[in-house]
Amino acid sequence: MSRISLDRVGHAYFGRTVLDAVSMRIEAGECVALLGPSGSGKTTLLQIASGLVTPLRGQVKRRYRRHAMVFQDPRLLPWATAADNIGFGLRQRGVRRAERDARIADVAGLVDLDHDDLEKYPVELSGGMRQRVAIARALAVQPDFVFLDEPFSALDVGLRRRLQQLVLERLLGHRAGLFFVTHDLVEAVQIAHRILVLSADGSGLAGERQPDGIPLQRDARSAFDLAETYLATDPLFADLNNVENRRAV
Ligand SMILES: Nc1ncnc2c1ncn2[C@@H]1O[C@H](COP(=O)(O)OP(=O)(O)OP(=O)(O)O)[C@@H](O)[C@H]1O
Ligand SMILES: [Mg+2]
Fold this sequence. Notes:
Bound molecules: adenosine-5'-triphosphate, magnesium ion
CATH topology of one domain: Rossmann fold
Radius of gyration: 18 Å
Strand content: 15-25%
Structural class: alpha/beta
């Protein structure tokens, strides 16, 4: 049974349609990437899928025990250290101190935060460090579904590729379902079982592609080549391409 399913979901802000008749599902152990130009409704769709926003039309069904979110901005508690931010959800759920500390150390290690970083407050951390704290906070609760909104965007390329690998391996290894928003087609090709594309006019899903092979096992070269091929030959990605071109000017 799907971990999450959306049936003809539609949404509008102030009378302007953002999403129309979106139907999709995500299975356990599946990573689905969501792509689309800026403003096409990616964050809105993620918020609807997670229950943060109630859609004006359609139905959402969720069948998981515990979800976690990594937002587009890190949203850390400013008065709590990195360690306390990571452990916040565990504390709320009454997880004991020793267990909490062990889990914080485990997930902090996974995202490359060291002991000194953990003692710092958000204002003392770099943008990339804050993003890694937010990722660690999501992992700490051992979710079986995770919503990720451009989680690696503030990281440099080397760190991004490494964290993609480590974080997604951990989550998919535990059969979590992942709904992953990204701007980066190479990233989508590398990590996803399926790639969904939102249309540029905000009217809903334009289509979906299923790259060959197994996510995280595609090497960087072939992921890059496939992304190039998609951009050059596949009409589904034409709008992404145009937006990239417009931005470059
Ligand atoms: N809370 C809100 N109130 C009013 N309009 C909103 C709200 N949230 C989003 N919108 C509008 O809905 C549209 C889609 O926004 P959304 O944030 O979902 O896009 P996105 O695809 O995530 O963009 P980006 O790639 O820049 O993050 C935009 O036109 C945006 O201005
Ligand atoms: Mg967004």
